[in-house]
Amino acid sequence: MLLIVAALILFGESFALNKNGYVNRSEAVWNRNIKTEYCFQCLEVEITSTGGAAQYQANRLGRYKIAGALWDNMVPYFQSENGQYLTPGPTSNPGYKSVPWVISEVKGGMNAGIQNKLHSNEYHIFCPWELSEGWEYVHQFQWFVDPTLQVTCVEFKEIADQYV
Prior knowledge:
mainly beta, 2 domains, nine-stranded antiparallel β-sheet, two-stranded antiparallel sheet, 3 helices, 13 strands, 35% strand, globular
């Protein structure tokens, strides 16, 4: 059991243990003070669309709060109240600054319903709220661009906290 908890902590997650020593997922709390290497400025995002994503992927729209981090606190991932994740996708390679953002029902983005391939360049990993175009949704196993889809940071960390 201690090995499992140590592994969870190593991957940047904070969990409460119940009286039997098991991880209590309902009490899982992300330490909002942890600073990731990229995209640490935002604590909550809102994903909106009036286009195809709203019609075919409505369950993936809404507000997402920071829920954890991947790759030794390199980048955060966000989770909505209905269990969807705004997360780096399964083809991410942060060593090459390649981090495509996806919206999926799992961390790591397998089976995503929304994605953005305009994700990086050789010098910078883009945060999802920095991507004003290139968002796509899936419908009947095909990807379509939704020019109305936007990811907006609605809660920034305090300015003083960003440089601690």
